[in-house]
Amino acid sequence: MPVRLIHNNYGKARVRLMKVARKGDLHELQSITVKIAFEGNFTEAHTIGDNSQLLPTDTMKNTVYTLAQQTQEIEEIEDFALRLADYFLTNNPQVTQVIIEIYEKPWTRIAVGGELHLHSFIKGGEEKRTAKITSTRDGRTIESGVEDLVALKTTKSGFIGFVKDCYTTLPETTDRILATSIKASWIYANPAVATGNMWRDVRQTIIETFAEHDSLSVQHTLYAMGEAVLEKFSDIVEITFSLPNIHCLPIDFTRFGLENDNRIFVPTDEPHGLIEARLSR
Amino acid sequence: MPVRLIHNNYGKARVRLMKVARKGDLHELQSITVKIAFEGNFTEAHTIGDNSQLLPTDTMKNTVYTLAQQTQEIEEIEDFALRLADYFLTNNPQVTQVIIEIYEKPWTRIAVGGELHLHSFIKGGEEKRTAKITSTRDGRTIESGVEDLVALKTTKSGFIGFVKDCYTTLPETTDRILATSIKASWIYANPAVATGNMWRDVRQTIIETFAEHDSLSVQHTLYAMGEAVLEKFSDIVEITFSLPNIHCLPIDFTRFGLENDNRIFVPTDEPHGLIEARLSR
Amino acid sequence: MPVRLIHNNYGKARVRLMKVARKGDLHELQSITVKIAFEGNFTEAHTIGDNSQLLPTDTMKNTVYTLAQQTQEIEEIEDFALRLADYFLTNNPQVTQVIIEIYEKPWTRIAVGGELHLHSFIKGGEEKRTAKITSTRDGRTIESGVEDLVALKTTKSGFIGFVKDCYTTLPETTDRILATSIKASWIYANPAVATGNMWRDVRQTIIETFAEHDSLSVQHTLYAMGEAVLEKFSDIVEITFSLPNIHCLPIDFTRFGLENDNRIFVPTDEPHGLIEARLSR
Amino acid sequence: MPVRLIHNNYGKARVRLMKVARKGDLHELQSITVKIAFEGNFTEAHTIGDNSQLLPTDTMKNTVYTLAQQTQEIEEIEDFALRLADYFLTNNPQVTQVIIEIYEKPWTRIAVGGELHLHSFIKGGEEKRTAKITSTRDGRTIESGVEDLVALKTTKSGFIGFVKDCYTTLPETTDRILATSIKASWIYANPAVATGNMWRDVRQTIIETFAEHDSLSVQHTLYAMGEAVLEKFSDIVEITFSLPNIHCLPIDFTRFGLENDNRIFVPTDEPHGLIEARLSR
């Protein structure tokens, strides 16, 4: 029975770059990390070590740097990803599909005497703006998203009426902390709408819904956030969430003869719940 | 246009536990981390916050601890995962699919005066033995694997004959360091063969092939490892690899008037190549 | 020759807690991590296992939780650290010195329709506000600081006129990116001035100086920042900086027949420069 | 009041390198990370940006690579650190003190058919062998050590007779898991004894003592390990330990109507105890 190669892809990951755009004394800064994956006819590279169809991942990296330099302006990550995908497909006939994933981490201008500085910046948090382009010669899919957007509400979250069995120890509660690290991504109906403003509007819709929702469970809030996005943005066809439940455990002060009044909590990294869903129209 | 929930799952991640088996003075130790994901009819939990079909993830965690305690012996992680999946399916009619993922990190006995100690251990490395059980009422799939198995060979690796374009700077080489962090997983034809001995034999076949292979590319060595496993173990139906290329860059000593003799390298974490493939019969 | 115990301390690290202060519907949130270290007469705990002088670290943890609960208000971390140190010294005669270290990570209110939300928050970045109290029955030292405050300027930074030797390859430059992760801590002349406003003012002075400085080296900017703080705040007696030089390497585009115009950089985590100094009056 | 620079140092951190020694077909591999810190007269670099006394950290890095290349053999990290310190002091009159810190991570040969392979290796764990050389023109101190050596014993550890107060909830126990991540470093009386065999003997003494000790507390075991080293090795003048207490919490099965039999534990990363001491003769 011969061995068959039923799927393969290769590429370069963690290509970091920082781009400076200079408009006179005003400098703009963008910090991104790029991942590239090729699919195509690479069977003989695997079976007999024939590399004649392989564009080295080192060359992919150099291409990222050079295409970044080709534009003076800071570019939306979706646009840069599309340019990269187009370049690779155009110049590599052996490649059938290119996936480009980019995330951008925020930097904010330092304020000096109340004025935003022209060329000095502070790094923002771990939150990432993400873009994923899946491109073939027949079409392309554009998915934007957020990752590591940690959100917390100190009330308007409960969890009751769940299944009980012999291993149940979790008490029902109508007032708990709800904390999660939002990972969400949404697919656009067409590339033209994938702008930075759109991204900011979707992100804002997600966090406003999180803030305002009367949560009966993580699932309930997840659905509310997805529904709000799909109802508000007709150019979005699908949205996916992955939400860890970052448990913030109340301390039991009755052990010290004190009353529990729901003010001191221990946030825990593990174990954690994980709630995932995809919504479409 | 109404919103539809097109996929969802939930569960508990990073449930760590340590199990001690006592055979008189001889103690055995197992350190595992469990992840559980349920699929089922949870639509109303999302849409209206009705939790009546939700087994809390806290209860899942308690179930892991209790089922671990039910056996005195240290259990293969595949067997424990199967027991967990069976338990959850049997006791939760609303659940249609359970996925259990477990990884185990190695501990080794301390040698005292050349004798292995009865109850004292040193933690091994970051390498993980993994198991993933996907279980429905119609059947179950068993996938075992390794992760973070970092392997390196100082010769018998080259990379030549690849595509060149205007962004090519990588020199061809017939003698380079090949380093990777092996992530591999394989699907067994049936649960009965998923033993610890089998796992050790597959792992050994992978690393022996890595060591002995005359590598013309990462793809070439990936394929050789997969082929060796599929040829040797008829009970394995499919194997998947994800292999970062951990570049070890030679220093250019000609800048200091010295000769390059391929002895001093800088290992780099980023950027890195990433080569992935799945092989079957 | 007998063995002597020449120094020892013990305590609890990574005691995380989240405190919620409720003012009607307006909730405030504080996220801190506490470390406690005791020095004292613990010799016999070491030499013969006599624990009669040891307050368990588990009890230290419980004390942190309970003292946090004793105040309804969110407390400056310096004040909380002082309360903890006082409590431990008062109640543990066997303890001669207590060191309390606390760091706080920022959370910001979610804006909903332009209004700050009453009880929903987004986690800020990795930047930490730090406090360290060293307390004995004779006095106490208060040190506040920042950590992981990543700052970058895209111009007004150079590095020329340095020592050259046979291993020099670094080119002189009058225009480079300067990036660092600021770790700074300063000692107050007396506890009363250790307020949140003071902390914010010192932090602001540091980053404004970073932004405005014409940097001839990391050392040069470090000194400027320290000098600015000491000149502005007479209640600060000493300031210490630890500044990694996060190298942002310009890509050499001449390899691709293009011009180098100082716009695309590769930020690197390793290796990195590390510049440290302490300034006083 | 003028500002004074009361201490300063600078250098390069995280200089990773991999060295291959070739003895015909037999290859040896060493993976190290070097940190360099200079002290000296660098005042004017800080105060006026005069870099004429600064050897760039980039040059330090190049020097590490080149001095590594100067020996064909794999060198003990203490010897390499001494060579580096000597080189820097000899060639930089403005430098008064050099501190070199190196850690080495283990790699082991892959066994193929029971034989150790000539040029293929698997990365060992996170345990580090460390060396720190503090060198001036008047002398040098040599400190060797281990870090991240995680050790655990499943019995022969208790903790009783400690201080109780109103916040005590920890039960006394005469049989618990003791787990720690050993960080230890020891100072040699003279450089000549700082060999790899010595390092291995000291490490073995530490872990054998850990394994065999009837532990009444972490302090008690720390002292026993230090005492064993100082008694056995007359060339060691001082040893320092930093031992986190990695709590492994027993599950309370009585909540599920089961008996607690001390077999299932939850290892936790935070909070953790931290026990530190220094011993000399």
Describe this structure in words.
Four copies of one chain form a homotetramer. Chain A has 281 residues and is α+β, with helices and mostly antiparallel strands. Chain A has two domains: 1-137, Urate Oxidase (Roll), CATH 3.10.270; 147-281, Urate Oxidase (Roll), CATH 3.10.270.10. Helices cover 23% and strands 43% of the residues of chain A. In chain A, strands 1-2-3-6-7-8-9-12 form an eight-stranded antiparallel beta sheet, covered by helices on one side. In chain A, strands 4-5 form a two-stranded antiparallel ribbon. A two-stranded antiparallel ribbon of chain A has the order 10-11. In chain A, strand 6 and strand 7 (139-153) form a beta hairpin. In chain A, helix 4 packs antiparallel against helix 5. Chains in contact: A-B, A-C, A-D, B-C, B-D, C-D. Chain B binds chain C through residues 166-167, 169, 255-257, 269-270, and chain C through 166-167, 169, 255-257, 269-270. Strand 1 (4-23) of chain A pairs antiparallel with strand 12 of chain B, so a sheet runs across the interface.
